[in-house]
Amino acid sequence: MRWLCRGGGIFCYLLMLVSAVTAAEKKTAVIATIFPLYDFARAVGGEYISLSMLLPPGVEAHAFEPKPGDMLRIGGADIFVYAGRAMEPWVDELIQGVAAPSLRVVDASTGIAVAPAAEQAGEHAAHAGHSHGQEHVDPHIWLDFDNAQTMVDTIAAALSAADPARRVDYAENARRYKERLQKLDSRFVEFFAQRGSTTIVYGGHAAFGYFSRRYGVSFVSPYRGFSPDAEPTPQNIIAMIKTVRRSGAKAVFYEEMIEPKVATIVARETGAELLLLHGAHNISKEQFAQAVTFIDLMEENLEQLRRGLSGR
Ligand SMILES: [Zn+2]
Asked: What number of CA atoms fall less than 13 Å from residue 71's CA on the CB side?
């Protein structure tokens, strides 16, 4: 443009103005793999980014694998955010296939102490899944709200690096969102502290390891892995029914996106109530259209726990 402006004058001024306006309106294109990342990026980036989620709404997250069309989408983005190699074992191969040298690839698990299987809380969840590239690592980092705050910071840093002119806005949005996560965390802390020792009967896969350590609660689950494709054995289901009868649990919780076969059997056999405990991997198409947030899901979880654990 400089050669056009060599003479100066009004034409030059107008050209500079148009160029400045275009730069200000340009949105950073962000693709996030799963729902928590999508929600965090939405909260931090707001109106300054054009955001999409790689995982289609309504699809179970662990079984998802990107298709060639997804590589094209990612190639056209400025930032690609993923939850970590334990959650997305295909990520290295995918990035190699995307011919976009300027793409910023952001591992949202950076700075987070991922839990190995041996530290997974609860004896029923002590075995690692086999469907992830990183065996023996629990990928569900977002269900500890301290980790969620770190993820928000990582996303804010990536947005600021891509669009330094907005860094103050990103920092302020991140601060506000982290404040909401802290308040959410306090409500869970308070709830579990009032209850004392708590066992949650859960018919889903081992998604709540970080959550259970954070709040000192135990989960009883018939699954032996971090992924819902590891089928529970009949023995595990029978053991779960016995646990519910012995403990007098009033509710059996089930997971999102998957038909709750196991939880339904256990609830039917024991008369316990069937309640959703959302792992936030993904949301339904309807929820996506309604712009449901991560914090909405977690607040709903707290209500479900209140209901199911008090037996009201
Ligand atoms: Zn999971």
From this structure: 14
